[in-house]
Write a structure and sequence with these properties.
The structure holds two protein chains of two kinds.
Chain A (H helix, E strand, L loop, with lengths): L1 E5 L3 H12 L1 H8 L4 E6 L3 E4 L6 H11 L9 E3 L3 H7 L4 E4 L11 H10 L3 E4 L2 H18 L3 E2 L10 H8 L5 E7 L2 H13 L3 H10 L8 H4 L2 H15 L9 E2 L7 H9 L2 E10 L2 E10 L10 E8 L4 E7 L3 H18 L3
Parallel strand pairs in A: 1-2, 1-5, 5-6, 6-7, 9-11
Antiparallel strand pairs in A: 2-3, 3-4, 8-10, 8-12, 10-11, 12-13
Chain B lengths: L1 E8 L5 H11 L3 E7 L10 E8 L3 H13 L3 E8 L3 E9 L6 H9 L4 E9 L7 E9 L2 H17 L3 E3 L6
Antiparallel strand pairs in B: 1-3, 1-4, 2-3, 5-7, 5-8, 6-7
Helix pairs in contact in B: 1-2, 3-4
The structure holds NADP nicotinamide-adenine-dinucleotide phosphate (NAP).
Chain lengths: 338, 167
Amino acid sequence: MRLIMIGFGNLGRAFGRSLLEKKEFLLTNYGLTPSVVAAVDEYGAAVDEGGLDVKKLLKTAEKANTVADYPARGKKGRSALEVIEEVEADLVFELTPTNIKNGEPGLTHIKKAMMAGRHVITSNKGPLVVAFRELDRLAKQKGVEFRYSGSVGGAVPVIGLAKKMLAGNMVHAIRGVLNGTTNYILTRMSKEGAPFDVVLREAQELGIAEKDPTLDIEGTDTACKITILANAVLGISAKLKDVKVVGIRRIRPEAIRLAQEAGYAVKLIGVAKRDSLEVGPKLVPVGHPLAVGGTLNAVTFETDLAREVTITGFGAGPRETSSALLGDLIDIHTALGD
Amino acid sequence: MLVRIEMELEDVPGQLVKVLDPISRFGGNIQNVVHQRDRKTPLGRVPVTVIFDVDERARLNRIIAALRNMGIRITRIGEREGMVKSIVLMIGHIIHTDIRDTIDRVNVIRGVMVSDLSLAMGAVGEESAARATIMASDEKRARAALSRLEKIAGEKKLLMITSLEGM
Ligand SMILES: NC(=O)c1ccc[n+]([C@@H]2O[C@H](COP(=O)([O-])OP(=O)(O)OC[C@H]3O[C@@H](n4cnc5c(N)ncnc54)[C@H](OP(=O)(O)O)[C@@H]3O)[C@@H](O)[C@H]2O)c1
């Protein structure tokens, strides 16, 4: 299968490494031979319709910080849109930064790719919270496959569990700890009793929180994931603005201690139900399946037949999330019966 | 089971301690005591409500017998097997926004009572935190209490954190 990588940052590179690591595995188990025919970042692109050397691509990206420096086949200034339109390929990975305002540049990339008849895999929440329905419809119209497992739960197969394994169920409600950064901060505050700002700085030093952690702390990232789950699993045409959001900025260690004394942990929980979408700090009984610590994510589906099903694991990290991208790739490969 | 006993005590020192003794001696786990000195009966007695947890009916019977033997006037006994307990955290300028008023406005709902309150004061100028336990006689009243509290929290700019189970 011929792949185009739009965005070759942390996740794109980790996925490249997984492709190398799993080359034999993919061939023996699935008869799948992925070939990266193009990679694009903000500076330019590397294109080889016969297949780029992924090892060389990784080395170039790490050294020159752009794929445009790829020997002989790299070209500065070649844009994602040009590549999507001009390069023969089966599938496009959209892995550019998240923009929750208008979904760009990812939204246009995905639309262009679908119009060109290419399957799409993305981990980018921006286009999904802005235009989920539109993209879903366009994919169907164009007869292409569209997957976005990595956008919610990172490595944790949240969407796949609901849409595939629980396919015979009516899902009534989804509740989850969907943001590793805030969960880390809350966990550290509860263990150390350290003030919010101190724990936040520590998380930034460890690379768990971003330089600008606003989207995480204000609950927006969790709200994005709730929006995606509402659309993908509950089938509601929700947008980000439909989610009622409260962040964790006002949570202090003393409040957490009061909760602990009564047998509760404080967690930032996202809830999606057909009549309400909300995100906010909640008291979770110690020992409850959603009372996960550190950077872990956990999601509970409340369903009619299976009752409650909870899944937990690593919600971010490039290597971990490459598991979701690879899973989507294999899933599409299998769906196409190649 | 959760039991609520309402009684009227003579307004003399030591009475309250006297009635609490058999309750804990026979295995009752006292959750809350409300001593309403400002609502004396015409005969000058003080209404007192004690809420406690006890695991067997036999123990409850012994407690009641002991109180009656002491000559205590019991006005009401309510067993609240299905009593609904909600824990709520609040963060904000809790004291400055009149915590007494906050609790009173919840307590006026019939069948609802704020039975425990713990405070963690913030440093000067900073926000404080409080944990309240709200007992309600049924789910409907528990929800009413929480939505009343939510409204008050909105007015007073407090962050209210409820339990996941209620979502
Ligand atoms: N990292 C994770 O663990 C993780 C987990 C789940 C979801 N995600 C999501 O996955 C996406 C990628 O994450 P990441 O960590 O790989 O981000 P990243 O390290 O910031 O990489 C983004 C990549 O996109 C490129 N890019 C930006 N604008 C572009 C444009 N207009 N055209 C082409 N390429 C463009 C960047 O190029 P330059 O370097 O040249 O600017 C870079 O290669 C994000 O939406 C993120 O939210 C990430």
